[in-house]
Design brief:
This protein is an all-alpha fold. Helices cover 35% and strands 3% of the residues.
Length: 368
Amino acid sequence: MRMTRTALCATALAFTAFLSGCERPPVNSVQRGYRGTGMVEVYNPRVLASQAPSNALPQVQPPASPDGPKASQVYQNVKVLGDLSVGEFTRVMLAMTAWVAPQQGCTYCHAAEGMASDALYTKVVARRMLEMTRHINSDWKTHVAETGVTCYTCHRGQPVPSKVWFTAATQKQATGMVGNDAGQNKPAVATGLSSLPYDPYTPFLLQTAEIRVAGTTALQTGNRHSIKQTEHTYGLMMHMSDSLGVNCTYCHNSRSFSDWDQSTPQRGTAWYGIRMAGDLNVNYMAPLTSTFPPNRLGPTGDVAKVNCATCHQGAFKPLYGASMLKDYPELSGAHSAMAPAAAASGAAAAPAAPTVALAAPAAPTATK
């Protein structure tokens, strides 16, 4: 029996009403740039809610007096925080335990038979990580500004940060397969399960590959801005977008992605962030390779390294921009001297700024 037009309309309306009752909360959009450029960020409230617990701030340890003898005068083998008073030193140690090893306690880094001993590799690593933290807060203000970082920024209560990376092992592919020499055509989470090169980190965050999509001259002139190099860049950009929970227009103007004069100030911050990650991997993480036991190394025998996700973990700013450094100024370092490894390699503490003008976009306004 055929339905009448009235019955059909009534059924459609009922089905629509049913679906509207099951509709999930709508996403929110925020205009971040000039009208007509498509520079809009879309935020899913369900995703933000799922991220909230991991971005909650830990309890702040009660303040300690800077007066009294220094830690290096009272304790043995204090090589990094010896400039702190005994009270400040103890406070930082308690905070680090809560940030890094809340389940394991002090003996995760310190030998039970002697706290001054360097017998545990975790203590050697922790010491170097403290130097790295002070280096970031002192020498990379171009990226972290006055917000800074602490151990918690990366660790979030875990001995090993949840977001680290290892150099990907070479994948077995059929001889002559397209992309075989570029390390691609194997779906990887890092590149959104696409056919892009599956290791977007090593070229840019450990080596010194140039990040550039469009060349200014023809390929015959010898420039390396070909499609092959573009694919590596796109892989890194996908990682950055996912790590910060934003889309391309958070940094780029969609009218001209390569034009710095039309980009947002965040692109400059990201420029420094890429180079900061490379500095940390080359001068702090890689030199620790022999310190770690084999079970802590990657498939190619390399040490765990940092990328954008290590600190950001899905948020446009780590911990949504909350600063823990103001509560723990001991980790800022009045002036962090160049790291020994960096000095040996001749690496600078921070590169020069991009020689471009960053145009500020219009103030963010919510769109209907």
